[in-house]
Amino acid sequence: MKEFCAVLNDAWKNFVFVGHPMEIGHEFMYNKLDTLLDEFNAKSENPMPHLSALVCLSAFDIALHDAYGNYHGVPVYDTYNAEYMNKDLSSFLTPAEKADVSFEGKYPCDFFVETVPSKLPVWHLVGGKDLLTDEERTGSEPEDGYPVTLTEWLKVDGLNCLKIKLCGNDKEWDYQRLVEVGKMAAEYDVDWLSTDFNCMVTNTGYVNEILDKLTFEHPDVFRRILYVEQPFPYDLEANQIDVHSVSARKPLFMDESAHDWQLVKLGRELGWTGVALKTCKTQTGALLSACWAKAHGMTLMVQDLTNPMLAIVPHCLLAANIGTIMGG
After folding, report:
1. What are phi and psi of 299, to 5 degrees?
2. Can you tell me the distance from the alpha carbon of 301 to that of 326, in angstroms, rounded to the nearest whole number?
3. DSSP string covering 125-184, please?
4. Which phi and psi (to 5°) does residue 228 adopt?
5. CB-hemisphere CA count at 13 Å for 145?
6. How far apart are CA 68 and CA 302, in angstroms?
7. Which residues is 195 bridged to in the sheet?
């Protein structure tokens, strides 16, 4: 990925295209990136997937958006409108068939919230190997001043939203993990849970059985689950699974599949009801997916575990401006 960033650096220096960052970013992403990636992979012993290329591209794309706002002396989110953009969203997006939706004369600003919040709920990730209680300690845990167990995190940070990583190929383990974390959520007044099956599930029955079992055996845990995140393979075109039965039980959010609005369109047809946006797959792509999804009644979340440190800034700005069901 570092090597590909060097390729992108040279490509951007020689990329001649004038316009708003949405227009420039779209042109590069759709008409330049894949060619660069194909050329790069042809010389590499370890071919890099498209998602990795997007992560690399995001650093350049976000910087371009920031630079445009700085140049004009305004917050970048004040530039996603007709005053600054040369093209409306109809130049980038196509509505779903039979949908009463038009992007003519619409700009990203038309899909932003009216009042931008100054605070956002934050989700804490419970990793698959994270310790939950002191009883699980082995003595090899780091002593760096930070909490080690989920119990400690709950006490120190006052967590209110927990994203639970599951394995997606061991139904009993996944179920028990949800029950264990769910019970802790009740004990420490955590309002919301979300489930992340890591794109490992290949049939809807796997998720449905877990949710149905929770409904009867642990209804409080089921109630706290706000949404289910991308249980199925991220290559949506190659794995066109009808997921209406899952989304009938809980809101079902696309994550790894949502790096392109056209895949969001396909996801909606298959039964997905929401989109988890990530600026680490480019600011341009995240905004286009967000606008398409909101126009078609899909709900949004914003997540980003890939870009650390200062990269949390564009992540939080997107969550605050675009409007999510529960922070980011």
Report:
1. -95, 165
2. 7
3. EE-TT-B-SGGG--S-S--SSS--BHHHHHHHH---EEEEE--SS-HHHHHHHHHHHHHH
4. -110, 130
5. 0
6. 23
7. 164, 228
Q: What CA–CA distance (Å, rounded) separates 102 from 99?
A: 9
Q: What's the pLDDT tens digit per position in 309-318? A: 888 899 999 9
The whole-angstrom separation of Cα 93 and Cα 84 is: 18
Task: Give the Cα separation of 36 and 129 in Å (integer).
Answer: 37
Query: Which of 27-31, 206-210, 300-304 bottoms out in mean pLDDT, i.e. has the lowest?
Result: 300-304
User: In the chain, where are the structural domains located?
Assistant: 2-86
Do the Cβ atoms of 162 and 190 come closer than 8 Å? yes
Which residues, at least 6 apart from 146, have a Cβ–Cβ distance to it below 8 Å?
A: none
**Does the CA dihedral 221-244-231-309 come out positive or negative?**
negative
Pairing relationship of beta strands 124-126 and 274-277 according to DSSP bridges: unpaired
pTM: 0.95
Q: What is the pLDDT of residue 46?
A: 87
Q: Which residue has the tokens 């650096």?
A: 9
Q: List alpha helices for the chain, DSSP H.
A: 2-13, 21-31, 33-42, 50-72, 150-157, 171-187, 204-217, 219-224, 244-247, 261-270, 283-295, 312-322
Contact 290, 300 (CB under 8 A): yes
Collapsing DSSP states into helix, strand and coil, what is residue 226?
Answer: strand
- DSSP bridge pairs for 192: 161
Closest by CA to 182, choosing from 231, 217, 142, 209, is: 217
Give the amino acid at 299.
T
d(CA 60, CA 92): 20
Could you tell me if residue 192 is left (phi over 0), alpha (psi between -120 and 50 degrees) or otherwise beta?
Answer: beta
| Sheet order of strands, 299-302 included | 124-126, 161-165, 192-196, 225-229, 252-254, 274-277, 299-302
pLDDT value at position 307?
55
Sign of CA dihedral 77, 82, 87, 89: positive
